[in-house]
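USER: I would love a firmer grasp of how sequence relates to backbone shape in proteins. This is the protein in question:
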Amino acid sequence: MATPVTKAVFPVAGLGTRFLPATKASPKEMLPLVDKPLIQYVIEEAISSGIEEVIIVTGRGKRAIEDHFDISYELEDLLRQKGKRKLLAEVQKISNMMNICYVRQKEPNGLGHAILCTKNLVKNEPFAVLLGDDIIDSDVPALKQMLDIYNTYSASIIAVQEVDRSQVSNYGIIEATPIGDRVYKISDMVEKPGMEEAPSNLAIIGRYILTPGIIDLLEKTNPGSGKEIQLTDALKKLVKVSPVYGYKFKGTRYDAGDKLGFLKATVEFALKNKEFGKKFREYLKTLKL
């Protein structure tokens, strides 16, 4: 029987350079996607999937993330005085989501290093990792889908999706054999290969369920691309000693860390908004495209 996954790690210490100058003084993860910051969507996905403990790896200039999920006494009191009960409930819902632990990554040394910063909190347990700029819209939360697969195989699970061959150089790509519905057994992975070198068109997306052994491997992993400790390098080692599976999740993924991807997500989430989606759709029809 698989050890339950109750903890999720959210690495948010990156500099968000693709969104400069907007992210010069404000965290990328706090960019609003319609009416909520990006990081809130991903944390809500984790909670809806049954995660009980959230660990956020922050860095310099990320204080706004902590403030967002904290209690805001002044704001709540003001909303209460003005009788804005609906807004008050929304604000309180954010601070009451769950208890969150924060770990400081003093400098952005890669995703692998960010995960290593949580060693004393994840302990010797399996845990999930969710990247805050990958927004996945799905009927069943993407992480919940992955946890169902994890409970079957009791092994590390990596979210993957098919991409156009012309786009493989933008992703980590898995070499794998299909073994079930949307499930692949991974034999290797290549970071940002050229079209000719790519072993498949199955790209690694920002959702992982990792078994405890990954921590030991990360500690033994030397800095790689960008002189940073890369999670992919440790996963390549993990594949050699333990089963690792790829899961092609059901849903639509938006790369909200990219300006075009962020704009696409904004339009599509706005169209689905119950409050003004219909009016927004009518507005788009008036544009001369």
User: Anything to note?
Assistant: The radius of gyration is 20 Å.
